[in-house]
Amino acid sequence: MPKFERHIFICTNERKPDDPRGCCTARGSVKIREFFKEEVKRRGLKGKVRANAAGCLDHCEFGPAVVVYPEGVWYHVENEADAREILDRHIEKGEVVERLAIYK
Amino acid sequence: MPKFERHIFICTNERKPDDPRGCCTARGSVKIREFFKEEVKRRGLKGKVRANAAGCLDHCEFGPAVVVYPEGVWYHVENEADAREILDRHIEKGEVVERLAIYK
Questions:
Q1: Distances in whole angstroms, Cα of residue B53 to Cα of each of A45, B12, B99
Q2: Residues B78, B89 contacting (CB under 8 angstroms)
Q3: CB–CB of B67 and A96 under 8 A?
Q4: Per-residue pLDDT tens for B42-77?
Q5: Complex-level ipTM
Q6: Per-residue pLDDT for B2 more than 80?
Q7: Banded model confidence at residue B32, pLDDT cuts 50, 70, 90
Q8: Quick one: which H or E segment has residue B40?
Q9: How far is CA B39 from each of CA A58, B49, B75, B80, B83, rounded to the nearest angstrom?
Q10: Does residue B36 sit in helix, strand or coil?
Q11: Residue A29: its chain B contacts at CB < 8 A?
Q12: Does B1 touch chain A (CB under 8 A)?
């Protein structure tokens, strides 16, 4: 019963600036989420793929943290170039982008 | 490269009261998310299962909307009894709870 072929969750959790764990938002995840969302639309993938904001994904040390389901691949996404590579390869072709994957 | 055996996303999107689509938050999803989170902890599933808040999952008409990955099963979760059944059967045993599933 899947609804989306691929579902991207981008952590947009925000903590106080003095929190030692930091947070994905402080590392630019809100902008990265916007980029994923816009690209999904631009590539005509709306309805097949969704780029969702998520609360803390518990991967703070690897943030900005992104997980792609149904494969359950976790990524560290630093910038738009990283996001674009995930869209080009994983989202559109089903390939895991090893260089950005958190778990090997 | 999955991190969690099961990853539950609960829509906690909030819209203005006059928005015709309504929103999952207005239907009690924040409390449902808290219940999932507490139950995951209470059942000793922390680290194996995660109950995450999510932005709009685009299932407003079925809200409160919940999706469980990696299976990608979408549920309408009305109350704690529904959440408990999903935890008992899907999260702990891998069975789809047909009566609560959005897509048949």
A1: 24, 6, 23
A2: no
A3: no
A4: 999 999 999 999 999 999 888 899 999 999 999 999
A5: 0.93
A6: no
A7: very high
A8: helix B29-42
A9: 17, 10, 17, 10, 9
A10: helix
A11: none
A12: yes
Q: Do B9 and A52 touch (CB under 8 A)?
A: yes
**The two structure tokens encoding residue B54:** 């999510």
CB contact under 8 A, B67 and A3: yes
SS (H, E, C) chain A: CCCCCEEEEEECCCCCCCCCCCCCHHHCHHHHHHHHHHHHHHCCCECCEEEEEECCCCCHHHCCEEEEECCCEEEECCCHHHHHHHHHHHHHHCCCCHHHECCC
Question: B79 pLDDT band (50/70/90 cuts)?
Answer: very high
- Contact assessment for residue B82 and residue B28, using Cβ atoms and an 8 Å cutoff: no
Tell me the three state secondary structure of residue B83.
helix
What residues are paired with A7 via a beta bridge?
A50, A69
- Tokens 């897509």 sit at which residue? B103
Backbone φ, ψ for residue B79 (5° rounding): -160, -175
